[in-house]
UniProtKB/TrEMBL annotation:
Its cofactor is heme. Its main location: membrane. CDD domains: CYP503A1-like (cd11041). This is Cytochrome P450. It is found in: Membrane. SUPFAM superfamilies: Cytochrome P450. Heme binds at residue 440. The lineage of its organism: Eukaryota, Fungi, Fungi incertae sedis, Mucoromycota, Glomeromycotina. Keywords: Heme, Iron, Membrane, Metal-binding, Monooxygenase, Oxidoreductase, Transmembrane, Transmembrane helix. GO terms for molecular function: heme binding; iron ion binding; monooxygenase activity; oxidoreductase activity, acting on paired donors, with incorporation or reduction of molecular oxygen. It comes from Rhizophagus irregularis.
Length: 496
């Protein structure tokens, strides 16, 4: 009788895995970068040496090449091939690629799964009403700053500033989404603001189980959901409980006032006006709350990230902060402390800083992968087969010398002051918000709220880094997170 040891079984398993997972590259495909570690391929370098690794691959193999990570071939695109993805969105499916590693459809099971609906809602009901809502945004930014930063007569040091800034940014967004009555509850604002932080770890968990089978990652990730636990459930319960009496009150008003009912200017009232809103049906409110989460998940987290990055970029450069203060002071005197949307848009130096800060966000690879929905041949002759996952080398595009000059790698806060190129403008080189017809529809709200927040902070505080240096971001594989080093806030001395 032959005894097979565990080690022998492991060796056999590894050999089978190697044969099954060996990458196969077809004719006219982008070159596959050679690797020396079987099965793992380029996974280690992709996770722990991303910037250097991807840059060297691009220098040696060109703007379009493939790497082997997590048991599959991924094609990396930059420059011209990257922009072709934005011009031909029907050939590249971002939703399917995202679901493989981040099962948002299971996290928000009640939500409308049509991204077109959420995009239209963000464009028309959020960004499209910013001129109407700018007063609300300003009011609650000031309230949030006063409550969260407050008096700094003695210098106040804040560590991990993203958490603090996230709540401040969430406060006005919550008021725009659900109205002032519902957003008066701190737990609702916190639920909307914390949602992305609680889901964030799921985004960055390496899909190690892809080495065995793609479905295993999703299966293991979603096991807790099958037993009733979800990082979304407690947030949903809070929001549903806070919204239910508000909804019932508004329904009563509609019934009593009829044609004289004056709609509330928030996203909740928009949802209540849709034909599929029926508060008598079980879980109908859950459906609309999950739709609300789909909007807030992106809106709050990305806006607060832009704001905290810009804060660190200013804090490490006192000469820049002084110049921005002069601009802020001029607008404040002209409008007597209450700026309009036009005022915010005309803050050209602040706009330039925000755009340059976004350009230097540091993510090497675009967070959102795409799946090739049908075989596609790029203008350079390379063909990518159906089902292949692609990723966009965004940092390369955002630092291209042909687009931003020989000093493209440098952080120049006022680079765009005279360029007639606001931070909201999408073009082939500035791809922070994507491109083409699927460019982020909420960017107008996000940029203007970020600028208004920074404007109020600059007017009230001197900001510096505790170290006195320009702080670097934290790398997590190909992505970055804001520094957690200390930010120092100190009251400005107001001149009468």
């Amino acid at each position: 009788m032959i005894e097979v040891s565990m080690f022998q079984l492991f060796v056999i398993f590894v050999i089978i895995l190697y044969i099954v997972r060996r990458p196969r590259i077809g004719e006219n495909e982008p070159p596959l970068v050679p690797y020396t570690i079987p099965i793992l391929g380029h996974t280690y370098n992709y996770l722990f040496n991303t910037k250097k690794f991807i840059k060297e691959c691009k220098e040696q193999y060109g703007d379009c090449f493939s790497i082997y990570i997590f048991g599959e071939v991924m094609t990396i695109l930059s420059r011209d091939t990257l922009t072709e993805v934005f011009r031909n969105p029907d050939n590249f499916d971002m939703i399917s690629a995202t679901k493989e590693t981040f099962p948002l459809d299971q996290l928000l099971p009640y939500s409308d799964d049509k991204p077109e609906f959420h995009a239209r809602t963000a464009r028309e009901q959020v960004s499209g009403k910013l001129d109407i809502n700018i007063g609300i945004v300003q009011k609650y930014l000031i309230k949030g700053i006063e409550n969260s930063i407050g008096d700094c007569n003695e210098p106040k040091v804040v560590y991990n500033a993203w958490n603090l800034i996230n709540y401040i940014i969430a406060l006005p967004i919550a008021n725009v989404l659900v109205g002032e009555e519902a957003a008066s509850h701190e737990d609702l604002v916190k639920a909307l603001g914390d949602l992305a932080f609680d889901l964030g770890p799921l985004l960055v968990i390496p899909p190690i189980l892809f080495f065995i089978h793609k479905k295993l990652h999703e299966f293991v990730l979603t096991i807790p959901f099958k037993f009733g636990w979800s990082p979304v459930s407690r947030h949903r319960d809070i929001v549903v409980n806070r919204l239910r009496p508000v909804v019932e009150k508004r329904l009563k008003e509609r019934k009593e006032l009829g044609d004289n009912y004056k709609p509330y200017n928030d996203l909740l009232d928009y949802y209540m006006s849709r034909p599929n809103f029926d508060n008598t049906k079980p879980n109908n409110l859950h459906f609309h709350v999950d739709n609300l989460f789909s909007i807030s998940f992106a809106a709050i987290n990305t806006t607060s990230r832009a704001a905290v990055d810009a804060l660190y970029d200013m804090a490490g450069r006192p000469e820049v902060l002084n110049e921005l203060y002069e601009e802020a002071l001029a607008f404040d005197k002209e409008c007597n402390g209450s700026v309009t949307l036009a005022d915010v848009q005309n803050m050209v130096k602040l706009d330039s800083l925000v755009k340059e800060s976004l350009r230097h966000a540091g993510n090497i690879i675009n967070l959102s992968h795409h799946m090739v929905s049908k075989s596609y041949t790029f203008s350079n002759g390379f063909t990518i087969p159906e089902g292949r996952k692609i990723s966009l080398y965004s940092d390369d595009m955002l630092k291209a010398k042909e687009n931003f000059g020989d000093d493209a790698e440098e952080f120049k806060p006022f680079r765009f002051v005279n360029a007639k190129s606001p931070a909201t403008k999408v073009d082939r080189s500035y791809i922070v918000f994507g491109g083409g017809r699927h460019a982020c529809p909420g960017r107008f709200f996000a940029i203007n709220e970020t600028k208004l927040f920074l404007h109020k902070v600059i007017l009230n505080y001197k900001i510096s880094t505790k170290s006195g240096k320009i702080e670097d971001k934290i790398f997590i594989g190909p992505l970055t997170s804001p520094s957690q080093s200390g930010l120092v806030f100190e009251n400005r001395v107001k001149n009468n």
